[in-house]
Amino acid sequence: MRPLATLLAAAIVSAGPFQAVAQQQEPPRRQQQTQPPKPAAKPRPPAAAPAKPATPPAAKAEALPPSQVGIGTFARQAFMVDPQTSTVMLFKDAEQPMAPSSMSKMMTIYIIFEELAAGRLKLDSRFRVSERARAMGGSRMFLELGSEVTVEDLIRGIIILSGNDACVVVAEGLSGSEESFAERMTKRARELGMSKSVFKNSSGWPADGQYTTARDLAVLSWRTIEDFPKLYRYYAETSWTYNNIRQENRNRLLKTTPGTDGLKTGHTEEGGYGQATSAIRDGRRLVLVVNGLASMAERAQETSRLMEWGYREFTNTTIFRAGDTVVDAPVWLGAQDKVPLVVTRAVQITAPTGQTVSPRVVARFDGPLAAPIAKGSKVGTAVVTLPDGRTIEYPLETGAEVARMGVLGRVTTLIRHYMFGWLS
Question: If 75 and its partner were Cys, which of 29, 201, 290, 300 is the partner (CB 3.0–4.6 Å)?
């Protein structure tokens, strides 16, 4: 038996040294039951555009159609987020339905990656090319009717070559028909948080009732990067040769904009030219989605300009590094009376360059923690409240192992608690 009290450790971060102050409620005289802490939610790109970015130069703001948040852009829809801090830096009609074009191929690839990760597919698994697949128009991998193609070749054919024929082969191979696969795409998209996306085919070929949003594609981009770090590498390949035909990746930023490692371009007459892009510099990743541009050249120029703006005008401040102690938690019946609670990944916030930020960090856990305690046990969350009022939660783990007291120590502690606990 142990006394239970909800501990609230509040940490106010400022420009000076960090200080954490733990506040413990008076323990009850008898044990009470508590529920274990819920696991912290993984940070996700937010649905709204909460961050107030730096103001761009007046001349540029006047020359470009304005955005609801951030710099003006010629894109009809645009969304930029730092997914590691859930901070939106650019928002222009990012919840407006739009034609997904070939950017919807990212959903097809996501499902392939899931099948590979689950072991239901292997890179050398093969799918047969049907007449429907061979007859697809638009961008193609130039597959031969009746041939059997490996999953790895199909991945490259979809990502690098934007092959509509390759998408149909995958859809029929995994679900029997493209219609069934499209239903699976929509269902999985909703599960990922893409609440305003409907897919009617595997390639993004124009179809009635098919739509997505810039924000939804940003969610998909980040989930692909986060969920499949070893497979994401295919998105960075700049060219590929299949069937003696060499084709270049249409994502020009892979060669022109430092740090770019994905993702996918797209174009339809209805939606214009679009692109989902991600880049990482010095450990900081940005995700950008644009659509509705007038040409391939404008798409490349505008996407590069916006990405450079995001890195130039915003910086990240590290509040805790991975492994840093947020607070020391009291231990019940342990060989040590405290154990450090640490974050397993860096806690950062995004703000306009040069702006001082002072977030509030609160450690939430039920304690005292009962010994024995294994190192790395998930025991609570660190809740970061940003200057704009949003909160992000990070898991808290025990940073050390704590053994139980010996028998004599436990007996003495229990007697002291039940006889004199009300004085402590």
Answer: 290
Distance CA 136, CA 57 (A): 46
| 141 shares its domain with 17 | no
Residues 207 and 236 in one domain: yes
**Residue of 92, 105, 200, 264 with catalytic role:** 105
In a domain, 267, yes or no: yes
- Asked whether the bond before 263 is cis by omega within 30 degrees of 0, the reply is yes
Known catalytic membership, residue 105: yes
- Tell whether the model's pLDDT for residue 44 goes beyond 90: no
- Tell whether 412 is covered by a domain: yes
Distance separating alpha carbons of residues 118 and 297, to the nearest angstrom: 39
Residue 68's CATH number: 3.40.710.10
Total domains present in the chain: 2
C-alpha distances in Å from residue 275, one per residue of 261, 295, 304 = 13, 12, 11
Beta strands 369-370 and 325-332: pairing type?
Answer: parallel
Active-site option among 102, 203, 221, 304? 102
Q: The tokens of 296 are what?
A: 């391939």
Q: 171 and 257 share a domain?
A: yes
Q: Is the pTM of this model over 0.70?
A: yes
Task: For residue 186, tell me if it sits in a domain.
Answer: yes
Q: Which structure tokens are listed for 124?
A: 């050398």
Which structural domain, as residue segments, surrounds residue 170? 58-316
Dist. CA 168–CA 130, nearest whole Å: 8
- Candidates 393, 325, 337, 399; CA nearest to 370 is 337
At 195-231, the pLDDT tens digits run: 999 999 999 999 999 999 999 999 999 999 999 999 9
Residue whose pair of structure tokens reads 């697809």 in the numeric block: 136
Question: In which element (H, E) is residue 104 found?
Answer: none
230 with 135, same domain: the answer is: yes
**Residues 100-153 pLDDT 10s:** 999 999 999 999 999 999 999 999 999 999 999 999 999 999 999 999 999 999
Asked if 106 contacts 369 with a C-beta cutoff of 8 angstroms, the reply is no
Q: Are residues 307 and 205 in the same domain?
A: yes
Q: Which of 101, 139, 162, 203 is catalytic?
A: 162
Is residue 295 part of the annotated active site? The answer reads no
Tell me, yes or no, whether 80 and 98 share the same domain.
Answer: yes
